Amino acid sequence: MSAENDAAIRHTAHAQEAPPVRRDADAWRALAFLLAYFVAYVLVRSLMPGALDRDEAEIIHLTQELQLGNGTQPPLYAWLQWLAFHGFGLARFSLVLPKALALVATYVLMYRLARPLVGRDAALAAAASLALFPQIGWEALRIQTHSVLLTTLACATLGCYVALLKKPDLPRYALLGIVCGLGMQSKYNFGVFLLGVGCASLLVREHRQVVWNRKLWITALLGLLVFLPHGVWMLNNMDAAFTGTVRKMQAGNEGMAYLARVGTGLLQVPATLFSFLALPACIYVALCWPLRGQIVFDRTSPASRFFLASYATFGVLLLVLVLTGEVGVIKERWMIPLLFTLPVAVFVMFPALRTPGVCRRIRYAAYIAALLFLALLPARLWLAPAFGKVVSPHQPYAQLAEAIGRHCPAAQTVVTESVVSAGNLRFARPELRTVLLDDAVREHPRLAGPVVLVTHRDRDSDAIWRPMFLAAYPDARSLRQEQVRLARRFGSPGVMGFEVGCYMMK
What we know:
2 domains, globular, disordered N terminus
């Protein structure tokens, strides 16, 4: 072992012998900042005007009733959101509350799982570093729903796994199974995360000897029982559960030859990884640069080999996915369950980075990034038009809801081709029932009385969407057809056009 490595380890050991009072104070200050930050987030989002982004609009549409399945997404987040709406009403506060609580839990759980592996200072830095990933620090605040809960439950799962390594008793095996079952109901790519954790635990001898025994059947059984209700729905609705996801994955490679599709996928992987990792990587390199001579990979640590094995598994899975030729676009949020553990892994693999100074600087950098992201939430309403950008809050759905009330005042049901329209119209007028046109064609839900068909005004309005609606409901009698043009809000240029049709159902 080199003299530099000896010095790094002695320095780390000295850092970990810091007075517990100071380290406890750091942890309590970090928790206070976290709670204050998300209280401010709830207040900012509750007071923000404008339309909702797609994911939040979709969750409003999905929570009209409790279901065992919600199309391409598992139902757990929708269940939690339904509880919030029934407790506090259909309002922005109740919309953002489950997300804020899930994010608070994510940061706390990240700290809890990291602390036994890297100590308090590095665990605080690793937890705070989640805010440096734009998909977590920014997109989670702005638009995400199911992905937020996925990250929370992935942190909880890994925390249960680390606790199990320390004390492999029956209650911890049971808890791991319950959390895994819940995770599979947060988002389907949680299964990829589980596969990575499972393969890594098999590949690391020290972990395999502890985890893989007869007690693991308790984990598997409880996980299956928790997932079973939705699993039965999924098996009976395979088309609804996966067709939309496959269609999204294939976007951009329609009509391309197999090799061209594979080549496109291979180019997408590094581009997506760069976009996901660029900000935290640059900050870590800049802040850790003074220690560059002391940074040595800890190859003896089972935890180091565990993280490496999990990333290798994820890499193989990505390669297999690309080689199917079915991937046109690899989205950055797909990387969340694969790479959210990187801050912990870096401190595990390179012990010299666990110095109080480095950890403190990383934590402060994360605080600054989080505050900038929070400030950008309301600012983008007015800044985006200055740069020629149109963002979702600029869309005039509140005005469209008023127009619907004028054109078909007795209607209680809106049929629309867009989930963004469905969620925003119900958010503007909670008494409205919203039905997606695709669901109406496939499932033929019963519609009674006056019904409004609302579609975006373009060349498909008359050629596709209206005939689809009339084919599903041939007895519908047209009462009124209107073209509505509404200006975008908050200084955003341009208008949006809609077709509004009022029908009497027999």
